[in-house]
């Protein structure tokens, strides 16, 4: 419904504003860590290690006045400066991105109300010499199996895995599929459905532990009323999907990071549309 779509947009925009301060603090912490590691490394090396944070697309504004972005900006940990790169070919919010073969690969994302793309772009980062395989990747840009946003992807063992996502083409608001696509040069480039989750999901979290893909929380319909506390574990080697210990309560749109064998779950939103400052592992 239109009300549900507006609530979903409000959630995305409000969360962006609420997390801006935390993002800046994280950048400051990363800068400090970089300076410490560089100070230690200079004694043993004649060249500095370059570190960058790449920010692609997003959404600004509120509701109908909001705009979807195709910007690409890089924060240099060494210089503490932002710089703009050439924009993406498409506007994208709620997309995914990975560093792959000396480039940033960005997939899917929304570019308007109930509008999403299935395209995949490769963004070259200044100072990185593009390998032959990287050039080939850029030439053989494929597409996702459907137009989606709020999905999750990961690269594991030279395969791109796609899990869930909002699907505006179909009556089902989200996808329940776990797709796999080979990134090897000789592959056909076709996404294959390897497994289906018990329920469709979008705005979930995803982390990889060994060969297991953990699928954490999310929404079955893209809205707050569909948020769940389920945690699934998909074994990429055996193609087995199982439900593991759930979250303490339903949540979606969390930030996650792997720390050793633990997965740290930060923030998010609950079924009451309350924005969270919780941290779990």
From TrEMBL:
Q: Which UniProt keywords apply?
A: Kelch repeat
Spell out the InterPro entries in the cross-references: Kelch-typ_b-propeller, Kelch_1
Q: Does the keyword Ligase apply?
A: no
Q: What is this protein called?
A: Kelch-like 1
Organism source for this protein? Answer: Paramuricea clavata
């Amino acid at each position: 419904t239109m009300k549900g779509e507006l609530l979903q947009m409000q959630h995305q925009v409000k969360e962006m504003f609420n997390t801006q301060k935390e993002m800046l603090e994280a950048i400051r912490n990363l800068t400090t860590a970089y300076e410490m590691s560089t100070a230690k490394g200079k004694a043993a090396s004649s060249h500095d290690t370059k570190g960058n944070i790449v920010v692609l697309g997003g959404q600004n504004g509120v509701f109908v006045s909001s705009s979807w972005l195709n910007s690409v900006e890089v924060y240099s940990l060494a210089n503490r400066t932002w710089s703009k790169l050439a924009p993406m070919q498409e506007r994208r919010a709620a997309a995914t991105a990975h560093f792959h073969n000396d480039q940033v690969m960005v997939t899917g994302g929304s570019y308007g109300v109930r509008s999403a793309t299935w395209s995949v772009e490769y963004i070259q980062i200044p100072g990185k010499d593009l390998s032959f395989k990287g050039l080939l990747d850029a030439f053989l840009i494929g597409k996702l199996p459907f137009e989606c946003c709020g999905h999750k992807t990961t690269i594991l063992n030279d395969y791109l895995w796609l899990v869930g996502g909002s699907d505006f083409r179909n009556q089902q608001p989200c996808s329940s599929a776990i797709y796999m696509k080979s990134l090897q040069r000789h592959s056909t480039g076709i996404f294959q459905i390897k497994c289906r989750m018990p329920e469709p999901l979008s705005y979930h979290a995803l982390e990889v532990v060994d060969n297991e893909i953990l699928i954490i929380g999310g929404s079955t319909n893209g809205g707050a009323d569909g948020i769940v506390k389920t945690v699934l574990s998909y074994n990429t080697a055996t193609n087995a999907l199982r439900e593991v210990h759930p979250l303490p309560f339903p949540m979606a749109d969390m930030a996650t990071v792997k720390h050793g064998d633990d997965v740290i779950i930060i923030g998010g939103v609950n079924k009451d549309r309350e924005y969270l400052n919780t941290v779990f592992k």
